[in-house]
Structures are given as C-alpha cells and as structure tokens.
Predict the 3D structure of the following.
Amino acid sequence: MTVRLDQLPRDAASFARRLGELAAEIAQLRARQPDMSAADALLAPVDVDTSRWPQTTAATYTAIAASRNIAWKRKLRIAAATSVSVGTAGNVRISVNGTPLGTPVAAGLPLDVTVQLPATIRIGDEYRVAVEAQRTSGGGSVYAQVQLIRALD
C-alpha cells in the first residue's frame, strides 16, 4: 500500500482515526479468511501399527519421542495415542526441556494435554518437547504416537 504525502494524517486525531480504520479493515479480513499460520499446520500421517511406534520397557520415565520447537505462543497442546503390550501397564507424559508438564495417563488411554510453557521459555526461544513413557508392570512395552501438536494463545 502506498500513500501520497498529501494523504498522510496531518495531526494526532486524524492519525488515530486512520489507525482505527486500518484495524477495522484487518479485523474484517481476518473474519473472512481462517488463520493459516503455523498453528494450523498439518502433522504428516503416522504409522498405525503400534509395534512400530516409539516405545520403551524402562521402569523409569524415558523419552521415546522428541522434537525441538520455537516458542511463538504461550501454550502447547499435544495429543497422542498410547498402547501397551498384553499383560503390561505403564504411563505416558509430556515434558518440556526435561520438566514434566500436565498429568500423565495410563498407557492404553489417549493423551491430550494443553499446558502453559514454563516462564523461563520466552517467545522466540527454542525448546525441546518430549513424550516420556515408563513401564510399571509386566514384561512388554509401552508405546505412544503423537497425533497432534499445536501452539495456542
């Protein structure tokens, strides 16, 4: 958008009025078009065979999947399918930079958590999010497969 010199606001009141007009135009455009920002990015299809999902047999929480992300919103939602081998029990949780967040779920139940990022992570900082699992009984494995990850306001 270009503006000729004679079209520029001449005083604070006309500048404020024009700013209000531009804000209204932006709001109208946003109302017509869905936000196609990175928050709406699609996750690639994932393997449906649980035997090939990230897994562990460890008795203590162990990262079985992880990624590095850039913080651009304050909340994070992660949804994952979880599973266990026959005769096995365990738990699955999410951690950010090694700090557990949200409530762990029993493996075999869906994991769907929305968490506030730690205050030490500022917008623009890089952080590591991990899916951690532990086997609590039995001799098999605990599995998890992330199906959704999204930054939220």
The mean pLDDT is 88. Strands lie at 55-56, 62-70, 75-84, 89-96, 99-106, 111-116, 126-137, 142-152.
